[in-house]
């Protein structure tokens, strides 16, 4: 069909690939694998759930461009809001100055943030400019609050095994993914790791609820052993995304809330990946009826258009920094903190949630995903199919059961990635975990393509096994 253009367009793609590799160092990539092991795909534009390559090929973006995009690429309402804002006020220092999008977005975020009836609601918003920076803010705030009270022994953070919170040194300190962490270990701050509530790791006969209780008991013991030494606990509610889309029962979050309260430890919910409807509810904490003391948001915050992070905190935490001394203030800053363009994009994105009744539509889409994914569990190397709202994950193993993972040297995930890409779908497995985290505009026809390509990619990637 596109044959007429193929020659020149393939040449154009080749041209951009060469220019790219001459100058760019890509994120999260062993550059030696380009271009022979890993194809490099120059993209010309985005249209809804599609990415359109320089060679004219279309790719269904089943990973929402690293979990950022919510409503499809180049969504016109968000694009328009950014353009309008750019012609009004593109950037202003946020220390000592204020602007409408920053104020309105803070008001909106506080109004929609998770609530727990017996707690004072989240009351203040601090902006940063990417997810890792937001995590740094939350960690520093929690630590500094105790310093300001003279509780100098509270210097440690608790995080979860298999958790992920970003790549900067502080965020990496509370992450537990060896591939990202190990080499930098000598540089990292001290953190204590509590057992993951991951229900994939359930022992035979154990339910997801049992896993949650068992992990919470482990946390209880850890907090007791380190009483008075811990300032905050950080976790990804409901789904440990970078850790392989590992999911847990909301009961875990209820137990964590109680344990943090019992020990006077701040609870930091990192909803950078799971926020804004990914798990079905607007925020994942809602599924447990739990309100954190600090809430980190980024990725989908701007609908996937611009980098921005927001850290929401309680009035009590904020009040702990009010003092005559400047040193007791939170002197953290980033140059682009609260950038007006990013705030305008976020406001436009939140308006779409309301005008398009996005969460209700997602319920239908998620049910469709359930139906399309179900048959894949029958494939010989699929050990698990699991879902949390708009996230679906497929675990590939040698024996099709949990006990026999593939040897990582087989690079089954990479094979699946390439097989899907050849068929026009962007799946980007985490190890041997394939997953769908599509833009919310994905339609039935695109979902059917996604399911059939996933099936073919699994079969091709595991054919050697
Ligand atoms: C992606 C991610 C981060 C880091 O965000 P960046 O914008 O990539 O720095 C932090 N926490 C979680 C849970 C994430 O998924």
Q: Can you count the beta strands?
A: 16
Profile the largest sheet.
7 strands, mixed
Assembly context of the chains: single chain
Give helix and strand order, one letter per element, not per position: HEEEHHHEHEHHEHEEEHEEEHHHEEHEEH
On the 0-100 scale, what is the average pLDDT?
96
Outline: globular
Strand order of the largest sheet: 4-12-11-10-7-5-6
Structural class: alpha/beta
Under the CATH scheme, the architecture of the largest domain is: 3-Layer(aba) Sandwich
Q: How many H/I helices?
A: 14
Runs in which pLDDT lies below 50 for 5 or more consecutive residues are none
Helix content percent band: 25-40%
CATH topology description of the largest domain = Aspartate Aminotransferase, domain 2
- Overall CATH class of the largest domain: Alpha Beta
CATH homologous superfamily classification of the largest domain: Type I PLP-dependent aspartate aminotransferase-like (Major domain)
Cα-based radius of gyration, to the nearest Å: 22 Å
Query: What hetero molecules are in the model?
Result: pyridoxal-5'-phosphate
Structurally, the number of domains stands at 2
Strand content: 15-25%
Give the distance, in angstroms, between the N- and C-terminal Cα atoms.
36 Å
């Amino acid at each position: 069909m596109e044959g007429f253009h193929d020659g020149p367009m393939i040449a154009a793609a080749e041209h951009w690939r060469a220019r790219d590799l001459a100058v760019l160092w890509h994120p999260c990539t062993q550059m030696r694998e380009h271009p022979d092991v890993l194809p490099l795909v120059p993209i010309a534009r985005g249209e809804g759930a599609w990415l359109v390559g320089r060679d004219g090929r279309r790719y269904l973006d089943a990973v929402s461009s690293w979990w950022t995009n919510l409503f499809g690429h180049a969504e016109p309402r968000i694009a328009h809001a950014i353009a309008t804002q750019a012609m009004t006020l593109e950037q202003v220092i946020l220390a000592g100055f204020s602007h409408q999008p920053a104020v309105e977005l803070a008001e909106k975020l506080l109004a929609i943030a998770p609530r727990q009836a017996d707690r004072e609601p989240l009351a203040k918003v601090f902006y940063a400019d990417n997810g890792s920076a937001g995590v740094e803010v939350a960690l520093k705030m929690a630590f500094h609050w105790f310093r300001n009270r003279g509780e100098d022994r509270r210097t440690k953070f608790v995080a979860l095994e298999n958790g992920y919170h970003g790549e900067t040194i502080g965020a990496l300190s509370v992450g537990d993914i060896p591939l990202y962490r190990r080499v930098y270990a000598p540089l990292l701050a001290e953190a204590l790791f509590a057992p993951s509530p991951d229900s994939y790791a359930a022992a035979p006969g154990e339910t997801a609820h049992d896993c949650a209780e068992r992990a919470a008991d482990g946390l209880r013991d850890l907090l007791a052993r380190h009483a008075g030494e811990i300032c905050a606990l950080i976790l990804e509610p409901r789904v440990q995304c970078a850790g392989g889309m590992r999911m847990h029962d909301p009961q875990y979050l209820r137990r964590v809330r109680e344990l943090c309260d019992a020990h006077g430890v701040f609870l930091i919910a990192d909803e950078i990946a799971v926020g804004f409807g990914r798990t079905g509810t607007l925020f994942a904490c809602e599924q447990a009826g739990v309100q954190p003391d600090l809430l980190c948001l980024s990725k989908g915050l701007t609908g996937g258009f611009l980098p921005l992070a927001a850290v929401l905190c309680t009035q009590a935490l904020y009040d702990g920094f009010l003092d005559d001394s400047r040193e007791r203030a939170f002197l953290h800053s980033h140059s682009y903190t609260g950038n007006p363009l990013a705030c305008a994009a976020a406001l436009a994105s939140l308006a779409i949630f309301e005008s398009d009744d996005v969460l209700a539509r997602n319920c239908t889409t998620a049910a469709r995903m359930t139906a399309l994914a179900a048959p894949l569990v029958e494939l010989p190397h699929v050990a698990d199919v699991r879902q949390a709202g708009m996230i679906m994950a497929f675990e590939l193993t040698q024996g099709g059961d949990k006990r026999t993972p593939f040897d990582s040297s087989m690079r089954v995930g990479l094979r699946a990635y390439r097989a899907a890409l050849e068929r026009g779908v962007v799946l980007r497995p985490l190890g041997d975990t394939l997953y769908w985290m599509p833009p919310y505009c994905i339609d039935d026809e695109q979902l059917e393509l996604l399911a059939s390509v996933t099936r073919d990619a699994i079969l091709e990637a595991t054919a050697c096994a």
